[in-house]
Design a protein that fits this description.
about 190 residues, alpha+beta, Topoisomerase I, Chain A, domain 4, 2 domains, four-stranded antiparallel β-sheet, two-stranded antiparallel sheet
């Protein structure tokens, strides 16, 4: 019985780690005033009829703090890449010089910084909902085991353990959001 409870707790913890990893991924896509390759991570280009990630058809580099440089491996891919960037609606206009595409990040206004900070906290709320949902599923598993003969004391201890894990991950979500807000609001 205890092995099953340990497995439930480990499974809950592993799923919560995935929720945190997803949060980190989403937060990396939110602009903080500095150019990062993650800004263009979600962009797919029409590469000979197949939707292909941008970083698989071009070299993405950061020549300076406010510029993203995209150099296609095939010259004729410049137009489809430019089209994909425009369609992705990331708030940046591509500058095409015939050999490579540059994305210039304008300095963020105070209003845009607050908007991005709000968006990062929204992502944090999504992560908290996911963590709480995982907790609920874990507790439901324990309640099923309790109906099948698990003692009430052991079930309560297991639920308390899952709550401790949940609290730890909620605090981690808050920490990530605060760090992102600090990063965004720093000029």
């Amino acid at each position: 019985m205890n092995e099953e409870l340990d497995m439930i707790t480990e499974d809950v913890s592993a799923q919560m780690k995935k929720a945190i990893a997803h949060l980190e991924s989403e937060l990396s896509k939110i602009r903080a005033g500095k150019a990062t390759p993650q800004i263009v991570d979600g962009i797919y280009v029409d590469y000979y009829g197949a939707q292909t990630p941008l970083n698989q058809v071009a070299n993405v580099s950061i020549p300076d703090a406010r510029t993203i440089s995209i150099q296609p491996w095939e010259k004729k891919m410049i137009a489809p890449i430019e089209k994909a960037i425009m369609a992705a609606n990331i708030g940046l206009n591509p500058q095409n010089d015939g050999n490579l595409i540059r994305l210039f990040l304008p300095p963020l206004t105070e209003e845009r910084r607050k908007e991005f900070a709000k968006r990062s906290f929204g992502e944090g709320e999504h992560a908290k909902v996911a963590v709480r949902s995982i907790r609920r599923e874990g507790i439901e598993e324990i309640k099923k085991m309790q109906k099948d003969g698990l003692s009430e004391d052991i079930a309560k201890d297991a639920e308390d353990e899952i709550q401790k894990v949940t609290d730890k991950f909620i605090a981690l979500v808050d920490q990530h959001c605060k760090e992102k807000e600090k990063d965004i609001m720093t000029i």
